[in-house]
Amino acid sequence: MLSDFDVTIIGLGPVGSFAALLMENRGLKVLAIDRDIDIYSLPRAVSISDQGLRMAQEIDLDQIYIKNSTEVSGAEFVDKDLNRIGGTLDLKGFITSNAWPPMRFFHQPYTDRAIRDRLMQSSVTVLLEHEITEMKQEDDLVSLWVKDNKSRKIKSFTSRYLIGSDGGSSAVRNLLNIKQEDLNYNRDWVVIDIELLKPNQLTDKAIQICDSERLGTFIPAHLPFRRWEFMIHEGEDKEQFNSDEIIHRLINKWLSPSEYKIIRKAIYQFHSVLASKFRIGNCFLMGDAAHQNPPFMGEGLMSGYRDAYNLSWKLACVLKGNCSDELLDSYELERKPHAKFVVENSAGIGELMEAYADAKDPNDVPEELVSKGYGSFVLPDLDEGLFYGGKAIKEMFAGQLFPQIIKKKNNIIHERLDGILGESFAIVSNQKIEINDNQQEFMDQLNFSYIELEEDLINANPWLQRFFEFNRHYLIRPDRYVYGADFKNITIEKLIEDLRSRITF
Ligand SMILES: Cc1cc2nc3c(=O)[nH]c(=O)nc-3n(C[C@H](O)[C@H](O)[C@H](O)COP(=O)(O)OP(=O)(O)OC[C@H]3O[C@@H](n4cnc5c(N)ncnc54)[C@H](O)[C@@H]3O)c2cc1C
User: Fold this and answer.
1) Which atom of ligand 1 is nearest to 165's Cα?
2) Residues in CB range of 215: below 8 A, 6 or more apart
3) Which domains does the chain have, with CATH numbers?
């Protein structure tokens, strides 16, 4: 059946906007709707990870983040007197296998503004001040009704697929009747953003303040901004945290009132919740609509970016007729457990702070909790999903991100080369490889890239070197995850045949 749009995106926060631009870049006809007239003008998310920057790179949003952010030098847990008690992470100068620093702090109003401007100049059809009121799924498309909040008129559209990226109180999630699982971290915190009026003398590390009187967080955000977050105790009058006087008292350990201007103080309940389903029929949830976590890991927005990046190439593959709709089931299979880890580990950092604050000696804190802290936790690889055999095989590096190849000049990154992998699947090899005609036809249809790497380039990329110590050929997905490698008796022909059976059905 013909539809007005390939994909409709409800909610143009950072996640919906990223998804809209990724899909436009892949040639899809996108309708994007937000109930507000403009971006949210105050900062919420502050951090973008190496993987976030690598994903943003695909549509040149990396430069927007770089221009409006500062490299994070590290993070640690401190006691009430700000002495280090654990979990130090020293990040200065480190470049990960994604070819970016592990984390940068950005100023969200600046980045969201630039991304919104990009969106308004794109071919995406954007409807602001509109909100979804009703939707119906029939045959292979979604009918939706949206209210124009200015004229009060109802408009209707049809779309092959619909995405709810409409934040924590998602209307799409409610219309789909998707329940949320509560993962049991619900605490009120006051979040304070300030602008420094004097030269910065504060630490350049993010710190978690494990003070039994009041837990806190300090974030050396992008200058001239700084952020503090403090827990509000049960039974405390929340209203008092709206007073500047209380805010001045909370941060007087660091600054006197004449040294800064408060730009925002807000009380948030830090949740940890996960939607029970990320897909129903032709509708999907992503971003905060699908998962919310306390901000201690700095990964909330990154989880949403991973959703958008995972789903956009799959939708494009299906809508161009190269893959069957079943491929889209791998979205929930891959994203839900990963997002769940982020939600649980973020809450775990909050619990670790409480344990450090309550302990007489930090060494008494159980290892199980310490392992959730900085310097210990590692984001998991993908496990089940679109991989050789349906489950990522470790020896093939399947489920891991393939390193981004770089070229350096004077020991500084001069070129990031993800572009050579193209926008589809790629075979990356350290030697020549023969493909039979039948498989070549399948690969041409999918616009495969084939890259034979020279030894010098591999040797100049230590992350890559490690991969090629174990296998000779890698089959890489469009989102740069390894699908499989030639391992034991699994030849490249077998890998390609397995992929064909999984995406064409
Ligand atoms: C205090 C705080 C600190 C945080 N710190 C970090 C951090 O350091 N790092 C990090 O990665 N994350 C952090 N986060 C989380 C991060 O802000 C969110 O994960 C991120 O904003 C989610 O983006 P989103 O696009 O999914 O949702 P949102 O940003 O909430 O956007 C949702 C959009 O949907 C629109 N909308 C809502 N309902 C409708 C409707 N019915 N119809 C149409 N449009 C609708 C809204 O207007 C909005 O534009 C923090 C969050 C908070 C609250």
Assistant:
1) 26
2) 208, 209, 230, 231, 350, 353, 354, 357
3) 5-70+101-179+272-354 (3.50.50.60), 388-503 (3.40.30)
